[in-house]
Design brief:
Distance between the termini: 24 Å
CATH architecture: 2-Layer Sandwich
Number of strands: 3
Number of domains: 1
Structural class: alpha/beta
CATH superfamily: Barstar-like
CATH class: Alpha Beta
Strand order of the largest sheet: 1-2-3
Shape: globular
């Protein structure tokens, strides 16, 4: 459970720029400031996403209570290669578990998908196909 009074780090990425895996890597790298050494591949992405608290810890600051990524226009996410959505969904669960159990101090990791009402069913269907449980927010 996050410590009271600590804030979440929140970033927004636009899925219209993330129709490919390369676009996803670029958008997240920009939003979360991965740095110039980011390798733009799955292993490098995993490393960076598991180290979001690294910059705070390196400078002696208290890391945020959690990390929230808002994915706008989520109906566009990985549409050029929907087979990558399974990997991405399982990665998000992995990061959630990492921050809940291994990060210092235990932090929360979450993703919010937003889309138009008209496309909500499509997004729900794609994510359910990955085995991901969604919580809907109105």
């Amino acid at each position: 459970m996050p410590t009271p009074g600590r804030r979440f780090a929140v970033r927004t990425v636009d899925a219209a720029e993330m129709t490919t895996l390369s676009g996803l890597f670029t958008a997240f790298a920009r939003a979360w400031e991965f740095g110039r050494s980011f390798g733009h591949n799955k292993d490098a992405f995993d490393d960076c996403m598991r180290d979001l608290d690294g910059p705070a810890l390196a400078t002696g600051m208290v890391p945020p209570a959690g990390y929230l990524t808002h994915i706008s226009r989520a109906h566009n996410l990985l549409t050029a290669d929907l087979t990558q959505l399974d990997w991405f969904a399982s990665s998000l669960s992995f990061y959630r578990d990492h921050y809940a159990h291994q990060a210092h101090p235990s932090a929360t990791f979450a993703v919010v998908l937003s889309t138009s009402d008209r496309r909500r069913g499509l997004v729900r269907e794609r994510w359910h196909a990955t085995g991901t449980t969604l919580v809907e927010i109105d």
